[in-house]
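Lab notebook, page 48
Experiment: co-folding of the full assembly
Goal: obtain a model of how the components sit together before planning crosslinking
Operator: M.T.
Materials (sequences as entered):
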Amino acid sequence: MAQKLYRSTASVLWMLLFLGIGDRRVAHANPLDAFGLGARNVALGNAVTATVDDSSANYYNPANLTLVRDLLIEIGYLFNQPYLKFDGQDNNVDPLRGIHTGMVIPGVVGPVRFSVGVALFLPDQRVSRIRSIVQRKPRWELYDNRTQRMHITTNGAIELTLPHNLGKLRAGGGITFLTRTEGGLKFQGKLYKEPERALLSTAVDIDFKTVRYPGAGLTWELRDWLSFAVTYRAEAKVSLDLKARVDGVVEFGQSKLPGFFDLISFNTNLFAPHQLFFGSAIRPFPSLLVTLDLGYLLWSRYPPSVAEIEVDLQINGLPLSIDPPTEIASPNFHDIVTVRFGAEYRWQAHAHFLVDFRGGYTFEPTPAPEQTGVTNYADNDKHAFSFGVGFNIENLFKAMPKPLSFDFGAQYIVLPRRDHRKQSAIDLTGDYYSSGSLLTVAATSRVRF
Amino acid sequence: MAGATVALAHGFESIYYNPAGIAISRQIHIAIGYQWSGYALTIRSPALAGHDQASAARDAENQETIGGINIGAALFLPLKAPLHQRIALGFGIYIPNEVVLSANLPRPYTPQFVVMGNRGKVVAIQLGGAVRFTEWLSIGGGVRALSSLIGAITIQPNEFGTLGSEVKDELIAAYSPIAGIIVTPKPWLKFGMTYRGTFAGKFALPISPDLGASFKSFIGVPTLQIEGVAQYDPRQFLFASAWNVWDTLWIELGASWRRWSEFAQPVRNTVDCIPCDPNDPTQPWCDPQNTVAHCLPELPDPAFSDTLSPRIGAEWTEMKLAHNVTIDVRAGYSFEPTPVPEQTELTNLLDNDRHIWAIGGTFNWWVRPTFIVHLDLYFQHHILVSRTHRKSEPWPPSTVSETEYKNITTAVGDLDFRPYIQSGGSIFSAGTSLGIKY
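Observation: model returned without errors.
Model output:
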């Protein structure tokens, strides 16, 4: 009785504590930040930092890889359909769909339990996309392009049992991989006034370089019904840095003039900010799990996603001039804080058949300011409502006695209307408003061996 | 073992050499390692001193060293009977230092090591599975994944008279199948066969530079077609047999057949050829007898030939060094004939026959009877047999017209390497890995 009272009181205090702190803010920059990984986590509003217990721990909290006790293999699919609009007109932002898969391999050495894991999200259409359009053109800054990329992360974790009945401590960390493009193109030959007469050859030296960024997590399981966790994900930036040099002779009339011009295009894209998430989970009753996450995202370091160009021309004897490059304006994003809430109720339908009902809510304020100047990096606050169901079946096949899990989740994100009023009366874009919604559905199967 | 591990494949490395080998070991195997390759290549020609292409030849000789991390795992699914110890999965990832994919392609016609250049500068992700149907038959399959690039860069003035640009850069996943079989008719005899599909990383990144009206009134810059194949491995079949000649000493003898004849030019011309119109008054330079005289000719077919490469390897396992330490030692040799024909005309695609020697070993620390920590080391030396390409007489070759030759040398530079161009050198490779089996 005393134990039950203690647990109920702790549950209420836990909710008050986190609801009191968690007053606002979240945002996203890659497919996992934006829509989550795995159907269970989508259904829980991604509030799983303290409780994630499958291969998606590679992303949410590497420390929790040690919660996986059996060899685990997962495969699933995620589909997101955006309905994003300017002035009520659909912008036809590309949908995102792709396979997610992962594996966790657990082991024990003496008193230490360890796990290694890998998780992969692979969009159907591409590994990654960098697309930079001119800053004047309105675009959905956080959804137009940034979600269109592969995510591969690999991690390791250990678990220790603490003395003095202080529970268990888990620690994990690893690396996430991205690519950036860098290189040069060297053109050589002869140019004329007529472009079709150009005689040019090219030497290509382009590298797709690895961008590695670290992540780490720590979970303290004070009791089997109460856990706290913290996760850090480092900033990731993907750039496209190309230099083209045309070297040779310009034949103009009877003149043959040696010279060159350099063209440098530099673009930063697919930015993901430093992120720090605090998570907690409590089971007021054995069949009910309640989770709450708070996240801090350092969006103030967001660079312009517009390509900068530099042109250097040197051809003596021709009165040439080149239009100056457009001046790139700062996006002036600001840091944000987010709150995520999730709940899961487990119903034992049969001795070998469990059903989980899940729901979640997330509020994410936008890091982008109102677009009053030359830029049009549109983004809105987001309210995300999610729900889902999971089925766990044991002894389905004689050869596979461990549970098989099938999870389904859906999330509906509402972006309330936001007005962008231009300071200049002659702004080429003019005033407009942004609004919309996004629908995500996901399915995941988990096989334990 | 110089790659002579088709019938003797086991562990996560077999995802590459023969996926059927994933099902040979009956433990979970996880390993992480590092491998390094260095080049000492040479290009010689009496014509090279003061030649237009001297710097291109130096660049081709000075290939960057390549290093990278490899991570892999192979494991049996712990299923109950009748699938107990029958199904295994594995993955292997090779991540070069900093680079996911390198597209380093010199100008066409210039001296370049076309087969060895860039090799190893691409991420290789391999996933596979295998089924051990009986004690004597294992079959495996998987995929190798890599990336291709498509994109475009457009530069043009905007309404305010300033230059703006739009950039699109997409990495597309490309997959190549791999399959293998291992048959063990006797405990002392194994046969193995592996098929690998074509592995090609392509790129296409056209650049459309419009630098404004003032510039265009003097110089016309066309759309620049940047397109080619950054990485290429041909389709290949590998077959081998292995004998347990004494104690735990195995010897493997095999060969690999590579379909290099499918290899096409790795780059295309920078400017598309648009025939001119002799009746157009704005094209007074147009030759009515030859409306493509202002263009570069199509790049010639490289005309590579298929190759058959023999290899032999030996592995002596579990030699006791201490009460809980054993070592395995390995050695191998293979001969890789070049697929590249003698370069008698304008092109200078260089490649040589190679003798490959390799030695290696493994220290196994048996922490417990079912838990092993292992450290692998290997060294490999490729000797490139010196090769001389004698250039045709007279020069330029009769396969190109005078106009075509003039256009090519305008775009590329002097290509006269008479009387010959010669290539040779060595490649060194070494690596280590640390892993556990349990």
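Interpretation: Confidence is low (pLDDT under 50) at residues 8-28 of chain A.
Next step: discuss with group before ordering constructs.
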